[in-house]
Amino acid sequence: xxxxxxxxxxxxxxxxxxxxxxxxxxxxxxxxxxxxxxxxxxxxxxxxxxxxxxxxxxxxxxxxxxxxxxxxxxxxxxxxxxxxxxxxxxxxxxxxxxxxxxxxxxxxxxxxxxxxxxxxxxxxxxxxxxxxxxxxxxxxxxxxxxxxxxxxxxxxxxxxxxxxxxxxxxxxxxxxxxxxxxxxxxxxxxxxxxxxxxxxxxxxxxxxxxxxxxxxxxxxxxxxxxxxxxxxxxxxxxxxxxxxxxxxxxxxxxxxxxxxxxxxxxxxxxxxxxxxxxxxxxxxxxxxxxxxxxxxxxxxxxxxxxxxxxxxxxxxxxxxxxxxxx
Length: 326
What we know:
- About 45% of the residues lie in helices and about 15% in strands.
- By secondary structure, the chain is α/β, with parallel strands linked by helices.
- Strands 1, 2, 3, 4, 5, 6, 7, 8 and 9 form a 9-stranded mixed sheet that branches.
- Strand 1, helix 2 and strand 2 (about 45-50) form a beta-alpha-beta unit.
- It is globular and about 60 Å long.
- The N and C termini lie far apart (about 70 Å).
- Mean pLDDT is about 95; it is low at about 1-15.
């Protein structure tokens, strides 16, 4: 009779060795890493992709019945909101803590950065010299009047940047800077980073703020564009960075395997695979960026814990609205 139970036991073990992921990152950016993880560990990864807001709403609605073990999304603001909503749990992993710098993970262990994205200055090389540039704050100087393009404030990327500035400078000083940006705009805020870069390349403005991977994609498709990266704030706070990251869901049924997945994604073996597909930077300091990304030059990152971008996001949104930044 013992033999009769063996198939059932095998099926149960197989079912346990899987991780279910809700991802706001599209399939082409995550499937290669999941395939590599399965190849190394034998643990299957099943995933669903959707927008950040939809995934968070789904986790809230599913509650204890959720099948999801992991939430992957971009921008710390989204991860912070998920943690605040109670859909992520605190976990402890010596491997994650060794692979990921303290300022790129939640102090409570509810989320961990897996790749780094830098939000920096890009300028028109025919109209601006690198010596003209210095900092985010300097873009509020009247010398840039009619020369600045910005993405709309509705996107979380700029909200996170302003939130980190509030943490550094205080609310009053940051509002003064943002009002200066608005006064210097060459056109109404644009719908996305790519459009802002296109405006700079066309000479409709001279400088903008973008995530570097947008620059990388555009230059890859048209390497003759008169655009270059400038790393601001190198004499003080450093470049504003954000993350793509992940957390273990509060009601994960496969927590052990889910942690293994995050540990794998933070490892030297997987980091380039995770970062390179979107022209991002590895979060693991032992891993070098791809040659394409490295060609943009080395820079100092702002070492302030990016949890502040989440904690001060609402304050940043209200400030930007008061300053007329739409």
